[in-house]
C-alpha cells in the first residue's frame, strides 16, 4: 500500500513571466478528503490544471508512486479524474453525459459495451440521480448538473478525484448533501478526493486534511485537527475562530 | 437496479430505431433529388433515354449529356455539400460556436485572394485557378494554426485569428480589384460559387480529400464530442486537446478548400447545414457529421437543379440559389422552436 495517493513535489508553474505556483509540496493520503483552501487568485485552480496535465509545469506529480509526466493522456485518465470549476450544460441526456466517463477505456471507433453501460447505470445510481438519467443536462438544476458530472467521473473509475470548487454555485442544503456524498465515495468506494473549497467552515467539517495556499505557495498541508490547533487559518485569512455546540466556525 | 433506472434503459434502447428512421428518410431524400437532378435539365430527356444513356449506348446525344454534363454536375454538387457541411460541423464543434464556418475563419478569403492574384498577375496560368484556390485556402489554414498556436489555441483564439486574417485577405482582394478592374467580373463569378463546366476529372483529388476528412472525423467523433465539454474535462477524460483541435482544423480546411477548388466560394452551406443537422439528430458529432453529409449534399443538388431549370436555358449560380432557398429554410427551422438555437 502506498503512503500517498497523490504526491506533488517542487511544483512550479508560470504564465509567461508571471510565476503562479512556487515550489509546491503536497501529499494526499489514500482514501481521504483533502481540501485546498486559499484566497482568490492564490493559484488553486492553476494547481488543479497542472494535476490535470493541461499546463506545463516544473517539478513532479505522482500518483501511487508513478510520475504522471511519463503517462499518456489516456493512462492518466484511468488514474485521476478532474472536474473543473465551470461545467457546461450541453443539450444531451444525463445518461449520455455520464457515459463520457468511459472514454478512456474505449478505443477509437469502438462503441459502449454492455459492461460499460452497466457501469454507467451503477454510477448514476450511486450518486442518487437515477430519476434524472433520461433528462437533458440543460434542463436540470445547477446542483443536479454537478451531481451528473460527479457520476461521470465516478464512471471513469479512477482512484483519485480532483474537484475545483464543486460547491461554488450551490445553496447551503445542496452543499452539505454534496459533501456527504463525497464522504460516501471516500469510505464506501475507497476514493481519494482532493477538492478546492472556498468555504472554510465546510473544509474543516468535511476534510481529513487541509492544504492552505497563499500567493502561489502551500503555507501548510496537514490533518485538519493539526491545522486548527496551529491557528494557521486565522493568520492567513485574518479571521476569527469560534466554537459552538462542539463545531468550529470561522467568521470575519 | 431501481425501477427508475430500468425505465431509463428501456427509453435509451428506443432511441436507435427513431434515429434509424431519420437516416432512412434523409437517405431517401438524397436518392430522390440525385435522380431528379439527373433527369431534369434544360434539354428534355425521357427517363428511358436517360437510363439508356447512363448505362447503355455511349454514342447517343442523351449519353453525352448524361455522362459529360449532368452526372459530373450532380456529383460535384453532392461533393460540395458533403465537404462544406463536414467543414462547418468540425469548425462549429472545436470552436463551440454555431456561427463558425469556412468563411469566418478565412479559408474562403485565402482561396479568393489566390484566385484574383492569378487572374490579375499571371493570366497565362488561368487554367490553374482551382489549384491556386486550394493552395490559397490551405496556406490560410496553416497561418491560422500558427497564429492561434502563438496566442493560446483556445476555442475563441482560432475564430479571432481567422477573423483578423479574413479582413486582411479581403482588403488585399479589394485592393487588387481596384487596381485591375478587368478581373472584377471573372472574380465575381468565382466569388458567388457555381458548378457549371465542372468535369469528372476535376473532382478526383477533391473527392479523395473530402472522404479522407470525413473518415478521420467520423473515427475521431467520440473524442470531438468531449471537446464540447471544455478543454479541462476533455483533458481529464484522456483527450490530447491541442492535437485533436489541430487535426479537426486540418480536416475542416482541407474539405472546404477542396470544394473551393471546383465550386468557387460557396460558403453558406457550411453555416446552415450543421445547424439543421443539429436540430434533427442532436449534439452527437458522429450523427451530426453523417446527417450533415446527407442534408448538405441533398440541399446543394436541389439548389443546383433549381438554378439550372428555373430560367433555362439561362442559369443561376448555385451559390445564389442556395442563399435564396437555404436562408428561409433555416429561418423556418429556427422558428419552429427557439430552444437551443
Short description:
The complex is a heterodimer of chains A (252) and B (341). Chain A has 252 residues and is of the alpha/beta class.
Number of strands of chain B: 0
Largest sheet entry of chain A: 6 strands, mixed
Q: Judging from the principal axes of the Cα atoms, what is the shape of chain B?
A: globular
Biggest interface, and residues per chain?
A-B, 43 and 32 residues
Tally of discrete structural domains of chain B: 1
CATH architecture call of the largest domain in chain A: 3-Layer(aba) Sandwich
- CATH class category of chain B: Mainly Alpha
CATH architecture of chain B: Orthogonal Bundle
Are there runs of chain A of 5+ residues with pLDDT below 50, and where?
none
Number of helices of chain B: 15
* Radius of gyration of chain B, whole Å: 21 Å
Q: Classify the helix fraction of chain B into a percent range.
A: over 70%
Label this structure with key terms:
heterodimer; A: 252 residues; alpha/beta; Rossmann fold; four-stranded antiparallel beta sheet; globular; B: 341 residues; mainly alpha; ABC transporter involved in vitamin B12 uptake, BtuC; 15 helices
Amino acid at each position: 500500500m502506498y503512503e500517498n495517493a497523490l504526491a506533488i513535489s517542487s511544483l512550479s508553474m508560470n504564465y509567461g513571466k508571471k510565476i503562479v505556483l512556487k515550489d509546491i509540496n503536497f501529499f494526499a493520503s489514500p482514501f481521504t478528503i483533502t481540501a485546498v483552501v486559499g484566497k482568490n487568485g492564490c493559484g488553486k485552480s492553476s494547481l488543479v490544471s497542472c494535476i490535470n496535465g493541461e499546463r506545463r509545469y516544473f517539478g513532479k506529480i505522482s500518483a501511487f508512486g508513478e510520475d504522471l509526466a511519463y503517462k499518456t493522456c489516456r493512462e492518466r485518465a484511468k488514474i485521476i479524474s478532474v472536474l473543473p470549476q465551470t461545467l457546461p450544460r450541453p443539450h444531451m441526456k444525463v445518461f449520455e453525459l455520464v457515459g463520457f466517463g468511459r472514454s478512456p477505456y474505449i478505443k477509437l471507433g469502438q462503441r459502449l459495451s454492455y459492461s460499460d453501460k452497466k457501469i454507467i447505470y451503477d454510477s448514476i445510481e450511486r450518486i442518487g440521480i437515477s430519476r434524472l438519467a433520461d433528462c437533458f443536462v440543460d434542463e436540470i438544476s445547477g446542483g443536479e448538473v454537478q451531481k451528473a458530472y460527479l457520476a461521470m467521473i465516478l464512471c471513469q473509475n479512477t482512484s483519485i478525484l480532483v474537484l475545483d470548487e464543486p460547491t461554488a454555485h450551490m445553496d447551503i442544503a445542496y452543499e452539505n448533501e454534496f459533501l456527504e456524498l463525497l464522504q460516501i465515495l471516500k469510505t464506501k468506494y475507497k476514493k481519494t478526493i482532493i477538492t478546492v473549497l472556498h468555504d472554510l467552515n465546510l473544509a474543516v467539517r468535511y476534510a481529513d486534511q487541509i492544504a492552505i495556499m497563499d500567493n502561489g505557495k502551500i503555507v501548510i498541508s496537514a490533518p485538519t485537527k493539526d491545522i486548527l490547533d496551529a491557528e494557521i487559518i486565522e493568520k492567513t485569512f485574518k479571521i476569527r475562530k469560534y466554537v459552538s455546540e462542539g463545531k468550529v466556525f470561522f467568521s470575519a | 437496479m431501481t425501477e427508475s433506472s430500468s425505465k431509463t434503459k428501456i427509453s435509451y434502447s428506443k432511441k436507435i430505431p427513431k434515429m434509424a428512421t431519420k437516416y432512412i428518410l434523409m437517405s431517401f431524400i438524397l436518392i430522390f433529388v440525385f435522380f431528379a437532378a439527373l433527369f431534369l435539365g434544360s434539354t428534355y430527356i425521357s427517363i428511358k433515354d436517360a437510363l439508356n444513356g447512363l448505362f447503355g449506348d455511349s454514342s447517343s446525344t442523351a449519353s453525352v449529356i448524361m455522362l459529360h454534363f449532368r452526372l459530373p454536375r450532380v456529383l460535384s454538387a453532392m461533393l460540395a455539400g458533403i465537404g462544406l457541411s463536414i467543414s462547418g460541423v468540425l469548425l462549429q464543434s472545436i470552436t463551440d460556436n454555431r456561427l463558425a464556418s469556412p468563411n469566418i475563419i478565412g479559408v474562403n478569403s485565402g482561396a479568393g485572394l489566390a484566385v484574383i492574384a492569378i487572374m490579375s498577375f499571371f493570366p497565362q496560368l488561368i487554367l490553374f485557378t482551382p489549384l491556386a484556390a486550394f493552395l490559397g485556402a490551405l496556406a490560410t489554414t496553416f497561418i491560422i494554426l500558427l497564429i492561434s498556436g502563438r496566442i493560446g489555441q483556445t476555442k475563441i483564439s482560432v475564430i479571432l485569428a481567422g477573423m483578423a486574417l479574413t479582413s486582411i485577405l479581403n482588403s488585399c482582394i479589394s485592393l487588387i480589384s481596384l487596381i485591375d478592374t478587368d478581373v472584377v467580373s471573372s472574380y465575381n463569378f468565382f466569388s458567388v460559387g457555381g458548378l457549371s463546366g465542372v468535369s469528372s476529372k476535376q473532382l478526383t483529388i477533391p473527392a479523395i480529400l473530402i472522404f479522407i476528412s470525413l473518415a478521420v472525423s467520423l473515427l475521431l467523433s467520440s473524442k470531438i464530442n468531449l471537446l464540447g465539454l471544455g478543454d479541462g474535462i476533455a483533458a481529464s477524460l484522456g483527450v490530447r486537446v491541442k492535437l485533436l483541435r489541430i487535426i479537426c482544423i486540418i480536416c475542416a480546411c482541407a474539405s472546404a478548400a477542396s470544394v473551393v477548388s471546383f465550386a468557387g466560394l460557396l460558403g453558406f452551406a457550411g453555416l446552415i447545414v450543421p445547424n439543421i443537422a443539429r436540430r434533427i439528430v442532436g449534439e452527437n458529432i458522429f450523427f451530426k457529421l453523417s446527417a450533415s453529409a446527407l442534408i448538405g449534399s441533398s440541399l446543394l443538388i436541389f439548389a443546383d437543379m433549381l438554378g439550372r431549370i428555373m430560367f433555362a436555358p439561362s442559369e443561376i449560380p448555385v451559390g445564389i440559389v442556395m442563399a435564396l432557398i437555404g436562408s428561409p429554410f433555416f429561418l423556418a427551422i429556427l422558428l419552429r422552436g427557439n430552444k437551443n438555437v
